[in-house]
Write a structure and sequence with these properties.
The chain contains 15 helices and 24 strands. With 439 residues, the chain is of the alpha/beta class. The strands form six sheets. Strands 13-12-11-10-14-19-23-24 form an eight-stranded mixed β-sheet, sandwiched between helices. It has a seven-stranded parallel β-sheet with strand order 4-3-2-1-5-7-9. Strands 16-15-22 form a three-stranded mixed β-sheet, with helices on one face.
């Protein structure tokens, strides 16, 4: 720590005193988490009232400020994107969901919502006082530039990469308080072995990926399976411009295929906003910082920037799609399963990219509690469920039965294409609805 910033060094307990009753406090997004400040804030439970904590996609198993106050007298937790842990909180009534499209998040903080205190997880500083934003760039710079009080929490486990410009770094001088201490190991995100259905879907998508493609892979079984197939394929000179970088891209890199050589933007570097994966993956970030171009939401999720690259392939999962192509990516009825996140950003970017393709991938069916099958391709999105992507935004839909390209089709043509990749048991029913309603 440089001597000129020692005056800002305080204990987490001292920094937590900056929070006042009624404040909005931001925790960040994804695998980066202000662990020390969370514990220090929780310790003030009996002193505070109506503190509103914002975060999202938490992959660690515990938020102390939430768990210590189940009656929510002091703390209420709000999420931009429901993750595994937050789904458990949801079942206990301890999370409130806020819909958003990720690329719009910086504008929300600039012009529409208030932030009082920002708990910003950062890496250890270099000799000049600069810290990296570790594994969760998110929209941190926009958030803390609009906050009343900024706390940097130095995490000794974070990679110290800062990227080729200022978009993934902060300076100690920008903080009001700086805290450090011992942290738990970084949270690990793992994948199960792919199912037979996921393998079939991935095989269909693989046929659509050209050499030199720029990949945006969502977090899920099918994108990870596609990545492993790419690693074993003849594809070459692939690139990365993605919301979340993960072990999927590490697999492609280890196979010698992630060169980023054909990217018109950030040539030679993998571009991303968030990072989560295995310990081997985190070591990759630590050991080879020069091959990455981490950036904030304004940079990474810009459809205009994505569109300037050729052959952008965006692969994401969905919950259900209707015969017009409307997609629900995030809810089961009114129960929130995840969030829109950056899916729309990359669908639009891929749509506008020369040679680009945006894929929504899903199994054709799922099993109900009674063991019977329910189609994930439905006549219409049912009431209460979310329309995450409008019909005009969907290019390609992939199930284990094939790929439907919807761009430029009429309603009846779309319905026919969707029915053809539905489970055979439901095709007749779907086509009957289409013929009655889309004449």
């Amino acid at each position: 720590m440089r001597r000129d910033y020692l005056s800002k060094m305080v204990t987490p307990e001292e920094a937590a005193k900056a929070v006042q009753s009624g404040d909005y406090v931001d925790y960040g997004f994804g695998a980066g988490f202000p662990e020390l400040m969370d514990k220090a804030l929780a310790a003030r439970r009996d002193e505070l009232r109506d503190v509103k904590i914002r975060g999202g996609l938490v992959i660690r198993p515990w938020i102390e400020a939430v768990e210590c106050d189940p009656e929510q007298k002091a703390f209420t937790y709000y999420s931009w994107h429901i993750g595994d842990y937050e789904r458990k909180l949801q079942s206990r009534g301890l999370v409130r969901f806020m819909p958003m499209i990720l690329r719009y998040l910086p504008e929300l903080y600039r012009n529409h919502i208030r932030v009082d205190v920002a708990f910003v997880p950062v890496s250890r500083p270099d000799e000049n006082g600069y810290c990296g934003l570790g594994i969760g760039n998110y929209a941190w710079r926009t958030i803390f530039e609009n906050a009343r009080t900024v706390v940097f929490e130095i995490n000794e486990h974070f990679p110290m990469l800062q990227g080729p410009d200022e978009l993934h770094r902060v300076h100690l001088s920008e903080a009001d308080y700086i805290v450090e201490g011992e942290h738990e190991p970084l949270p690990i995100r793992t994948y199960k072995d792919p199912s037979e259905t996921e393998i079939k879907i991935a095989e269909h998508v693989m046929k659509e990926i050209p050499n030199g493609a720029v990949l945006s892979l969502g977090v899920g079984g099918v994108p990870f399976t596609v990545a492993n197939m790419i690693a074993q394929s003849d594809l070459q000179d692939l690139g990365c411009h993605t919301g979340t970088i993960s072990d999927a891209f590490l697999a492609i890199y280890k196979a010698g295929k992630l060169t980023n050589a054909k990217k018109e933007i950030d040539t030679g570097r993998s571009t991303w906003n968030l990072a989560m994966g295995s310990e081997e993956f985190y070591d990759w970030l630590r050991n080879e910082p020069d091959i990455f171009r981490p950036g904030d939401v304004d940079y990474v999720h810009s459809p205009e920037r994505i569109a300037k690259m050729s052959n952008v392939i965006s692969i994401n999962g969905g919950v259900e799609l209707d015969l017009m192509g409307q997609e629900n990516a995030e809810s089961a009825g009114t129960r929130q399963l995840s969030g829109t996140g950056g899916q729309l950003d990359f669908l639009e970017g891929a749509f506008r990219s020369k040679g680009g393709k945006g894929f929504i991938c899903l199994a054709s069916t799922h099993k109900k509690k009674d063991g019977s099958l329910k189609s994930n391709i439905v006549p219409f999105i049912p009431g209460g469920s979310t329309v995450s992507a409008p019909r005009g935004m969907i290019q390609y839909v992939a199930t284990e039965y094939g790929v439907a390209k919807l761009s430029g089709l009429t309603l009846l043509e779309r319905a026919t294409a969707m029915a053809e990749i539905a489970h055979p048991d439901f095709r007749e029913e779907l086509m009957r609805y289409a013929e009655e309603n889309y004449k």
